[in-house]
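This follows on from our talk about sequence and fold. Go ahead and set the record down below:
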Amino acid sequence: MRGHGFLLANYVPGSSPVHRAPLWAKFVLVAVCGGASFLIADWLVSAAALAALCGVFLLSGAGVRRLLRAVWLVAPVLAAIGLFQWWQLGGPVAGRIVLNVLLCIVAASVLTATTPVQDLLDGVVSLARPFRRFGADPERFALTIAIMLRSIPFIAGAFADVRDSARARGLERNPRALVLPVFITTVAYARQTGEALAARGLGEADE
């Protein structure tokens, strides 16, 4: 299975000010951008916020290529959303919605590009720890996120491989030739992951 990029930028080692920023500050950045995406009502403000955040991403040294790749992966979906909103509500509203979605994606990419995965998971555990009194298990929550971060690129890679194979056979427009192999591969991957977790006693509920 060949490698495929995830929606967000992968970690890039470095010593930039963004890398050295405390993890809680990066979490706050993501939360603020997520909240702002619902509150900003002017596409010009959205564009200015996005430009500033792109500057933060580039300051980290992650590079323009990684930034463009994170945006390119969602470009078809954003184009469809933008066109539909333009038709329904007009250009300014469509632009604001698309820019606000990009704002959230770039903010999350700043976090993932400047934070090692283990540090990110440790931070999630720390954030979830206060909810232990309500029955939450921070370690299991972090494990779920780790599995997600590993599984999504695998599934994306499986789809791309199946699509290329179907195209080589002239079946790129056949839904069965695309969906069924990906479904079988995904189920097999899920079973292997479950068996690996059970073998380590990680998939069983506490007594």
Remarks:
- The longest helix spans residues 138-168.
